[in-house]
Every structure is written in structure tokens, then in C-alpha cells.
Amino acid sequence: MQSEDFWLLVQEFEKADSQEKLENLLKGLLTPNEIEEFAKRIRLVRLLKKGVGQHEIAKRLGVGVATVTRGSKEIKEGYFKYVK
Question: What is the distance, to the nearest Å, from the Cα of residue 79 to the centroid of all Cα atoms in its chain?
């Protein structure tokens, strides 16, 4: 079960109904480094879904194989199903 804080966060993302609003929210919530890490996670997931090998992804993105394996596990658990 998700916490009330989780749902508060989800509601704020739902209200960000334009690129400008979403960018403003993300820049307010996250540091530049955190934004980069989130973007890297999305790139990792997209590469996994394209069938790129884990070692290749780790090399391309400069992350550990364990990080890629974690992303793969999350995909298998049903997360990232809307990421193309």
C-alpha cells in the first residue's frame, strides 16, 4: 500500500498538464544531478526494451551491471510498462 505522501506526489504530477508545468515541478523537486539520474534510468529502460544487452547498456550509460539488472527486474515485475 502506498503512503499518503506518495499519492500527494502523484496528484502533483497529474496537475502538471503541460511541459512547462512539469519542468517547473521537476526542477523544484530535484537537483540537477537527480534529474540526470532519472533521465538515465529512462534511457536504461528503453535500451532494455529494445533488447540491448546488459553489459552494453552499462558501458553506454556508465552504470554498473547491477543497476541494469535492477532495471530489468523492475520491468519483469511490471514497472515501466508505459515507457516505450
Answer: 10
Q: Which residue has the cell 517547473?
A: 24
pLDDT digits (tens, 9 = 90+) for 10-26: 999 999 999 999 999 99
Rounded to whole angstroms, the Cα distance separating 30 from 45 reads 20
Distance CA 58, CA 63 (A): 5
Provide the residue count of the chain: 84
| CB neighbours of residue 9 within 10 Å | 14
CA 50, CA 74: separation in Å to the nearest integer? Answer: 15
Domain boundaries, the chain: 1-30, 31-84
Give the pTM: 0.85
**Contact assessment for residue 83 and residue 46, using Cβ atoms and an 8 Å cutoff:** yes
Distance between CA atoms of 18 and 5, rounded to whole angstroms? 23
Task: Record the cell numbers describing residue 47, joined without a space.
Answer: 535500451
